[in-house]
Amino acid sequence: MRERLLIFVILMLATALFGEMKVNPFGSFFRFSLGSAVFFFGLIWFQSIPILLTGFCTGLFIMGFRIAIDMLMGQALWFDSLLTHLPAAFYYFSFALFVHVTRILQYMEFPIRVGLLGAAIDFASNIIELLIRQLLGESLVVTREIIFMLLLFGTFRSFCVVGLYNILKIQQIRTFGEARRQELERLVMINTSLYEEMFYLRKSMSHMEEITRKSYELYMQLMESEKVEPSTALYIAEHVHEVKKDSQRILAGLSKLMKQEQLNLRLPITELCGMVIRANQKYAELLGKSIRFSEECSVNLSTNHVYALLSVLNNLVSNAVEAISSSGWIGLRAELDQEEIVFYVTDSGPGIPKEDWDWVFQPGFTTKYDENGNPSTGIGLTHAQEIVQSFKGRIQLTYDEYNRTQFQVRIPADQLFRKEAT
């Protein structure tokens, strides 16, 4: 309520002030001003305020405002000033009434129609003001020249207002769309992290199942030998089994969440590559590095395996960001090679020595250290390889045409477009 009242007061003040930017074309007190354009814009932009009440109050306020100016400047007696400015109040009464009757706000998606209606409303309101002035004794004859001037100014003001309205609306929609896109990318990145955790949780459950089975077999062997105390093996089996059950509950919840998120999430490969680039541009800025990113994608296909691909590509590109000392470039390229989709990640970093190529996908291997000399976890590339292999693909280190180290990910196209397993 307070916000609407503030808008209401601001619109009256703005209309009154811009109404003083005027010309008097007919040698009388009748004026063309920017006040009516401001009033029209306020009615169509702030659609929460009541139209009729706004028109009535604005008309009275403008009449009082102009009378007060005349009194302060000593230009006329208050009654003469009242007769002079009373017709202007009827202009705003009429304008608001016509806007309400024509329901012009329902046609804002059709700017030409709104512009023509606004011109007609402005013209009709001006005619009413002129008639009121004639009734109050002003010697003003409505000629064809006057009618032409009213139509011309009314059309000009109306289409200027509608044009400004549409420009601001388009900008507002773009801003809103950009905010929605950024929010979607943030949520997708969060879900990508959940996908990684779910992937490892499923793998851990498989290991725990195997440990449970082996522990129970050991327990039975110990029971049969009757030479050692078998309770320790049984204890291990029971507790690993409990951990497995807890992991199953967590996995069930994560799987349900991921399944709900993925029901309608299907992105083009080009958009997915763009998300990886934008996310790592922010990451590079966070690390204080000046890195130029390039993206080239000629794959005009969409996939619902968004989180898996994001996890792999984001891992490779973020590794490249971390490998670059302060400034450089990173390239991400995707193309269709026969029945495979191939992703290439290249950067201007120091590269990986040839003798280390056989070790880079081993758990714990790393060439990255923080400022304190602590090594990275060394599981990122292992994780990426396991995801790629789950799609029957392969990830490998190669040289590009300029003899620079690059990561190459090859995934069969039919695997990326198969239905997500439940």
TrEMBL record:
EC number: 2.7.13.3
Superkingdom as given in the UniProt entry: Bacteria
GO biological process: phosphorelay signal transduction system
TM helices/strands, residue ranges: 28-46, 51-69, 89-107, 114-134, 146-168
Tagged with keyword Phosphoprotein: yes
UniProt-recorded Gene Ontology molecular function terms: ATP binding; protein histidine kinase activity
Domain Histidine kinase: residue ranges: 204-415
SMART domains on file: HATPase_c
Keyword annotations from UniProtKB, A to Z: ATP-binding, Kinase, Membrane, Nucleotide-binding, Phosphoprotein, Transferase, Transmembrane, Transmembrane helix, Two-component regulatory system
Protein's name in the database: histidine kinase
Organism: Thermolongibacillus altinsuensis
Taxon lineage: Bacteria, Bacillati, Bacillota, Bacilli, Bacillales
